[in-house]
Amino acid sequence: MTTVDDSDRSMMKTNLELIGREKINDLEAVLSFVGHYEEQGFHRVPDNCPAEFTWDYDKGAKPQLDKLYEKAKKAQWNGQTDLDWSIEVDLEKVVMNNAEANQDQMLWGQADLSGTVLDSWGDKEWLIFGVENQNWLLSQFMHGEQGALLCTAKIVETVPWIDAKYYAATQVMDEARHVEVFSKYLDTKLSGHYPMNGHLGLLLDDIVSDSRWDMTYLGMQIMVEGLALAAFGFIHSMTTEPLLKQMLRYVMADEARHVAFGVLSLQEYYLELSAAELRERQEFAFEAAIRMKDRLIMQEVWERLEVPTADVVKVYSQAPDRDDFQILLFSKIVPNLRKLGLLDAADGWLREKFTDMGVIAFEHLTDSTEEEDAFADGSPVERQVV
């Protein structure tokens, strides 16, 4: 374990400094921040990270990254032709089928709705909520994939090794394809877009604006992509809609390589960092974990449906399945941070934080360098996976 001396301890940041509030589970504070589209139609983030040329063109100097690169070249797929876009999607029927197939997984099944507007909702209102939830969820996937597109292009510029630049270039193509298919699905199969969730936007701004190349890796490849991989797997297992199921399976195969890329790239580098530098990475990982946990409350949906904040707070604080669902989404992140040595570095600060969050039990699950998809032969199309 890398230890922190007294001078470093005096610089330890509080929850207020890291996430803007003292209590992690302050639902009113979480719900108060809602994402909206900017009037100008775009969002611009300053990025002062220096691009780096390397004169070492020796391909294969980092064998595991080279292996990942070779697999990535074989695993490209075409979002226009490899997915069956002729499949008709009746969104209301999909919502009802999903609810029937996953009743034991439904968040609201055992929640006490008394005293809230939700208590007066009938089948029609819950159906509208289900439709909006689908629109919101796929919108966040799409926005997150654009964030990954920007960050991976940045990695190509900034990472110092040629093998990493080669692999990152394949991920740029992957992320462009993911943005394309999620956008097309939203436009042609669902019934509307949502803006980026406010908490996700804060995190992506932090990742893009940080000048250190390894922070781009940590924020995007480990944290955002790790949670996305778990989320895609969860939705893939629950949805009854065949086109979405196929699309998510293809995307998941790509994402497994992306997270493995982050772990393989950072392992060696983090061995060189001081305790103070590792503490900065731990704090960044903790902040990212909280931002992603906060976004799962779907603030934008509740605002659109005009549900009072007090009602949402009451229901979420009682919903028995909420924490289990949120914790499940960290099943890919915690083992990867353990693999990187970040759980126990600097006196085990991040281990304590994740223990408080209730996610530390995931640390011994399979990390992403051992994911079957990460080094699988051939593309998901060739393997006909579903």
Helix and strand content put the structural class at mainly alpha
Helix content: 55-70%
Number of helices: 17
Q: State mean pLDDT (0 to 100 scale).
A: 89
Task: Summarize the entry for a quick read.
By secondary structure, the protein is an all-alpha fold.
Verbal overview:
The protein has 386 residues and is mostly helical. The chain has a domain of 265 residues: Orthogonal Bundle (Ribonucleotide Reductase, subunit A). Helix 5 crosses helix 6, helix 7 packs antiparallel against helix 10 and helix 9 packs parallel to helix 11. The protein is globular, with a radius of gyration of 21 Å. The relative contact order is 0.16.
Key words describing this protein structure:
Ribonucleotide Reductase, subunit A; 386 residues
What is the topology?
Blueprint: H1 6-9, H2 15-19, H3 27-31, H4 63-74, H5 91-101, H6 123-158, H7 162-188, H8 198-209, H9 213-238, H10 242-270, H11 275-295, H12 299-304, H13 309-318, H14 322-328, H15 333-339, H16 345-357, H17 380-383
